[in-house]
Amino acid sequence: MGFIKNTQIVLANRPVAEIDPATTFRKQQVSLSDDLAPGEILVKVLFISLDPAMRGWMRDVRSYIRPVRIDEVMRSADVCQIIKSSNPDFKVGELIRAHCGWQEYSVLKPSDDVVKINAFPGISPSTFLGVLGLTGLTAYFGLFEVGEIVKKGGPNCTVVVSGAAGATGSVAAQIAKHVFGCRVIGIAGSDDKCDYLVKELGLDVALNYKSKTFFKELHAATPKLIDIFFDNTGGDILDGCLRRIAFKGRIIVCGAISTYNDAVPKGPAYYSALITQRARMEGFIVFDYAEQYGKAIEDMSKWIKEGKLKSRETVVHGIDNTPEALVKLFKGDNTGKMLVKVAEEDTKSRL
Ligand SMILES: NC(=O)c1ccc[n+]([C@@H]2O[C@H](COP(=O)([O-])OP(=O)(O)OC[C@H]3O[C@@H](n4cnc5c(N)ncnc54)[C@H](OP(=O)(O)O)[C@@H]3O)[C@@H](O)[C@H]2O)c1
């Protein structure tokens, strides 16, 4: 039996408004025993997924998941490599996705939610935290289940996506454009991101919401109004899209990152458009569709191979930089999926 030195980052204080990385989190070092009970595996964390939802997990309020406790390792989805196993179904060297949190190593039990990763050529294991992970699945189920894109999609369907250069938004926008042939307008926070959306991802139009003329541009870009709005941001962008929603339009309430740091929430002003246009605005949580993940991953893997789904990652290196990297999500520093690389994969031990 031996012990491994394990760096962890725990939640030290609940932020009231914006996250101050220095006071919100605390780094600690613990010794982790590698003495495994039957069925357990010891894993090394390779990549940590950073998600805007983490801001919500720090609030002690009723939600879809319990809050992270004070002094508890901060929760996250991670891609990990098995370094010791007492489970015949999981071999040393294999890659898995699990919720180990912000730490370097973890011992996982058979009851933990552990998913094996079968990366295919040209796909990095970290893709299983992005396009083929929860953000990609969120885009897929938001469009299919809430947006009813199978029924509404096609060249006469105008889709607007906010947070379009981010992990979820970029997948939603590409599925709407390249799988369903819709007219797609992406909204993002810089001219560089807008260039990326049009030139690299092939969207019809991209609008910078920080432009002084954004609302005029949104009006001009939606002459046939908005049939489906995939909303990742909430706030003023949601209000702008409510004013342009089409008759029987759909608003997929995926996220509201512009409001997550608000100490006091405020609602949309133009929600009465839902009445006049008989439109529907509906929220969802990706976990609701867990039983259908397999089919979604199969579809999206196919679209990646066909060149219909492209992705970028913004990778911050070193576990110590995880708190600052989380704050960067709220400043728009990422294009595509925001990740922390904690350790290199040992490719020799991978079978
Ligand atoms: N419902 C679900 O099950 C589910 C699951 C996963 C994610 N989500 C939600 O989906 C949204 C996107 O998550 P993600 O993981 O894909 O993150 P992401 O879009 O990759 O990153 C967040 C992006 O949000 C934008 N942003 C930050 N502050 C903003 C503000 N005040 N106004 C407008 N945009 C702002 C930034 O881009 P710009 O440079 O463009 O500002 C930033 O890059 C989040 O709201 C998240 O909570 C929901």
TrEMBL record:
<dbReference type="InterPro" id="IPR013149">
    <property type="entry name" value="ADH-like_C"/>
</dbReference>
<keyword id="KW-0560">Oxidoreductase</keyword>
<dbReference type="InterPro" id="IPR011032">
    <property type="entry name" value="GroES-like_sf"/>
</dbReference>
<dbReference type="Pfam" id="PF00107">
    <property type="entry name" value="ADH_zinc_N"/>
</dbReference>
<protein>
    <recommendedName>
        <fullName>Enoyl reductase (ER) domain-containing protein</fullName>
    </recommendedName>
</protein>
<dbReference type="GO" id="GO:0016628">
    <property type="term" value="F:oxidoreductase activity, acting on the CH-CH group of donors, NAD or NADP as acceptor"/>
</dbReference>
<dbReference type="InterPro" id="IPR020843">
    <property type="entry name" value="ER"/>
</dbReference>
<dbReference type="Pfam" id="PF16884">
    <property type="entry name" value="ADH_N_2"/>
</dbReference>
<dbReference type="InterPro" id="IPR036291">
    <property type="entry name" value="NAD(P)-bd_dom_sf"/>
</dbReference>
<dbReference type="InterPro" id="IPR041694">
    <property type="entry name" value="ADH_N_2"/>
</dbReference>
<dbReference type="InterPro" id="IPR045010">
    <property type="entry name" value="MDR_fam"/>
</dbReference>
<feature type="domain" description="Enoyl reductase (ER)">
    <location>
        <begin position="22"/>
        <end position="340"/>
    </location>
</feature>
